[in-house]
Amino acid sequence: MKFTKFIPLALAFTFATGSVFAAATTTRNAEYQIEVPTLFNITEYVAPKTQPDSVTLGEDLNSLEWTGTLGATYQVATNNPSQVFYVHAKTPDGSNAFSDDCSKIVFCNTASGQIPDSTAIASAKTGTDASTNPNCFAAAFPAVVPAKVAGTDLANPATTEGKLTFTASGSGTWRIPLAVTPNALANTFSPADAAGLYKATIYITDQATITP
Residue 212 and residue 91: Cα distance in Å, rounded? Predict the structure, then answer.
C-alpha cells in the first residue's frame, strides 16, 4: 500500500514544478540611431548672365536697351520645414537697389565722382523724371515664382522692407528664377547719365540683412 501511494506523489511533484521554468528566449534587439543634420543649400541651376553682349542707346537718347535678360536661376534645398531665406539687391554704395515692392532694380554708375546719391536712387525707383536721377536708372525685376523640384510647395515670396522673403512650409527643393528685363524703364535714363559701368548686385541668402 505504501508503494502504490508513492507513485502519485512523485507524479504530482513533477507536474507542479515543470511549469516554473520558462522557455529560453531567442530574441535580442538594439536600437540604432542616425541624426540627420539640418540642411540649407543654394546652388546655381542656370549660371548667372551678369552683363549683356551689347548695349544700345535709343535715337531719342532717353532710352537704353541691352541684349539678353540678365539674371540666374538658383536651386534651394532644405530639410528645415520652417526655413526662411531672402533675395536682396544692393547698389555699389550699399543702398537698397530694389524698389519697395521689388518690381524694380536700380543700376548705379561706379566711376569716381559719378556715384549717385540716395536722392537720385530714390528718384530712379519712382520713374517719374529722369533728370532727377543722374547716373542711375531702373530696370524691371519680374515677379519671382518658385518651381518645386521635390518635397512641399514653396509659396511665392512676401515683399518686406525692400527684399523678397521666402518661408518654407515643409522640406523640399525649389528653383528660384531671378531676372532683370533687357531695358531701362521709361523716365529713368537720359543723357544726364554719364558713360561708364553701372552695377547692381542681387543676393539670395538666409541672412535677413546684407551689407556689401
Answer: 9
Percent of residues, the chain, with pLDDT higher than 70: 90
How many Å is the Cα radius of gyration of the chain? 35
pLDDT digits (tens, 9 = 90+) for 90-100: 999 999 999 99
How many angstroms from the chain centroid is the CA of residue 131?
36
Question: How many other C-beta atoms are found inside a 10 Å radius of the C-beta of residue 63?
Answer: 18
**Domains of the chain and CATH, by start:** 40-205 (2.60.40)
pLDDT in tens, 19-33: 566 678 799 999 999
Q: What gap in Å lies between CA 54 and CA 92, rounded to an integer?
A: 22
Residue 173 main-chain phi, psi, to 5 deg: -130, 135
pLDDT (tens digit per residue) in 110-139: 999 999 999 999 999 999 999 999 999 999
DSSP, collapsed to helix, strand or coil, labels residue 156 as coil
Alpha-carbon distance values, 143 to 64, 87, 104 (Å): 22, 12, 10
